[in-house]
Automatic annotation (TrEMBL):
Belongs to the TRAFAC class myosin-kinesin ATPase superfamily. Kinesin family. It comes from the Eukaryota. Pfam families: Kinesin. The lineage of its organism: Eukaryota, Metamonada, Preaxostyla, Oxymonadida, Streblomastigidae. Residues 1-133 form the Kinesin motor domain. This is Putative kinesin family member 3B. It comes from Streblomastix strix. GO terms for biological process: microtubule-based movement. PROSITE patterns: KINESIN_MOTOR_1, KINESIN_MOTOR_2. The keyword ATP-binding applies.
């Protein structure tokens, strides 16, 4: 049998979350802008919940290290928060990258201009929350792999 390591690469360029008042979008553009913002809000919600779950787990670990063995047994049950990946096509597509078996890199693009201050601050908050997520990837192997020559 042949065993191969397998993986997937996602390169995603997210649209900016511009304010409608700034872009003065009307008609179809306004609808598209609203749909983009809805997807970005869903992504932000997923990132928030994953980051919050990571913080909770770190607190539990610290408490376990400081508590008695009896308390440790009681604290080992972690309540997992529901992550709403199904709220958006974007979050469904990125599910493995966000909270799955993967190594994920996020590059945030910000602008230095004064009129972009709110968008820049929002992007930095987004990136800061995403940075808190810790995936624990393992190598994916397939024994039914076929070598391409």
């Amino acid at each position: 049998k042949i065993t191969a390591s397998v993986g997937k690469l996602n390169l995603v360029d997210l649209a900016g979350s511009e304010r409608q008042s700034k872009t003065e979008a009307v008609g179809i553009q306004a609808v598209e802008s609203g749909m983009i913002n809805k997807s970005l809000l869903a992504l932000g919600d997923v990132i928030n919940r994953l980051a919050r779950g990571e913080q909770y787990q770190q607190q539990q670990i610290q408490q376990q290290m400081q508590s008695s063995k009896e308390q440790q047994k009681q604290q080992q049950i972690l309540v997992k928060e529901h992550i709403p990946y199904r709220d958006s096509k974007l979050t469904r597509i990125l599910q493995d990258s966000l909270g799955g078996n993967s190594k994920t890199v996020m590059i945030a693009n910000i602008g230095p201009a004064d009129y972009n201050y709110e968008e820049t601050a929002s992007t930095l908050r987004y990136a800061s929350r995403a940075k808190q997520i810790r995936n624990k990837p393992i190598i994916n192997k397939r024994e039914d792999a076929v070598i391409i020559r």
